[in-house]
Write a structure and sequence with these properties.
With 358 residues, the chain is of the alpha/beta class. It has two domains: 90 residues, Chorismate mutase (Chorismate Mutase Domain, subunit A, Up-down Bundle), CATH 1.20.59; 247 residues, Aldolase class I (TIM Barrel). It contains twelve helices and ten strands. The strands form two sheets. An eight-stranded parallel barrel has the order 3-4-5-6-7-8-9-10, surrounded by six helices. Strands 1-2 form a two-stranded antiparallel sheet. The longest helix has 39 residues. The relative contact order is 0.10. The protein binds manganese (II) ion. GO terms for molecular function: 3-deoxy-7-phosphoheptulonate synthase activity; aldehyde-lyase activity; chorismate mutase activity.
């Protein structure tokens, strides 16, 4: 075969490829229209009956040289990307999505900005136990130039016989201790009907991992204008996490911080597995700031510092850890809270890592 003959044949292939390209996109446009019709009828997008009919037609009409199986595989691929096209469409419509709003959302916690490019910390005891305890921690938090304090007043514990928190009395303690040092308060609320009352005490409502899909709670906090720290469920996919945030934003509240706190895997060396790459994924898919909780993800005091370094390096906007005057006697999470000395060395080691990679 001469060079020119080869060129002619290649030219023909190129022509067919161009036609295929046009046809595939033409098909995709129709698929999109079908998706819109189905959306109004709320029918399922995936239609195995139509797929089977096409496969049968391929089998009947195929004259080769491709085998029927090979052609069916090609069409299977076309179906697959078409389905994803519809899904993508759906995701780009989400209010939390980066496609909907390209610029970063900055969460303003009464003057403290999360997501504006400066990496921050939130520290505090696992649970509010007494005024004296929180006051001591607040003093240390302030000393390190941190503006946010955390503390659990409503504790969703695995066992009903474990310490359940001091409730509203705990919130009041936290508020008063925080005010003594001009700190902003983050605390978890578990019950939708408690949200309104909690607004008087907290600057950020935390929705805990176990409540990530408590849809009534999500809607309730969505109706407020308080910033929300939404923790990822312990067995939630990133997609489910994003949809949970959408529940909040769909009610009008866009002040949401997403918080990666580890997911359940087969690994037992840590309490959960810190899904560190969820941070850049969430920042890419959504316009919301992302926090990393290094306490509950690792469950190990010796891993707090390396996990916090990783979180800052990968682009987290906020790092959460726990501090207690005497962790050994803490009513919860005694294995991973830092005492003041450990907190000092933690901050000394982590401060040089702030905003190094961005
Ligand atoms: Mn804790």
């Amino acid at each position: 075969m001469s060079e020119s003959q080869l060129d002619v044949l290649r030219g023909k292939i190129d022509k067919i490829d161009e036609e295929l390209l046009i046809l595939l996109n033409k098909r995709a446009k129709i698929v999109e229209s079908i998706g819109k019709v189905k959306e109004t009828q709320s029918t399922k997008r995936y239609d195995p009956v139509r797929e089977r009919q096409l496969f049968d037609r391929i089998a009947q009409n195929n004259e080769g040289p491709f085998s029927t199986t090979a052609l069916q595989q090609i069409f299977k691929q076309i179906f697959q990307v078409s389905l994803e096209l519809q899904k993508d469409d759906n995701r780009s419509a989400l209010l939390v999505s980066r496609k909907k709003k390209p610029e970063d959302t900055i969460v303003n916690i009464n003057g403290i900005k999360v997501g504006d490019g400066k990496q921050q910390f939130v520290m505090g005891p696992c649970a509010v136990e007494s005024y004296d305890q929180v006051y001591q921690v607040a003093e240390q938090v302030k000393k390190h130039g941190i503006g946010l304090i955390r503390g659990g007043a409503f504790k969703p514990r695995t066992s009903p016989y474990d310490f359940q928190g001091l409730g509203f009395e705990g919130l009041e303690i936290l508020r008063n201790a925080a005010d003594a040092f001009d700190l902003k308060v983050i605390s978890e609320i578990m019950t939708p009907s408690d949200v309104e009352k909690a607004l008087d005490y907290v600057d950020v409502i935390q929705v805990g991992a176990r409540n990530m899909q408590n849809f009534d709670l999500l809607k309730e906090v969505g109706k407020t204008n308080k910033p929300v720290l939404l923790k990822r469920g312990l067995a939630a996919t990133i997609e489910e996490f994003i949809y949970a945030a959408e529940y909040i934003m769909s009610k009008g509240n866009d002040q949401i911080i997403l918080c990666e706190r580890g997911i359940r895997t087969y690994e037992k060396a840590t309490r959960n597995t810190l899904d560190i790459t969820s941070v850049p994924i969430l920042k890419k898919e959504t316009h919301l700031p992302v926090a990393v909780d290094v306490v509950h993800s690792t469950g190990r005091r010796d891993l707090l510092l390396p996990a916090a370094k990783a979180a800052l390096a990968i682009g987290a906007d906020l790092v959460m850890a726990e501090v207690h005057p005497d962790p050994a006697v803490a009513l919860s999470d005694s294995a991973q809270q830092m005492n003041f000395e450990q907190f000092d060395s933690f901050m000394k080691a982590i401060n040089p890592c702030v905003n190094v990679f961005n």
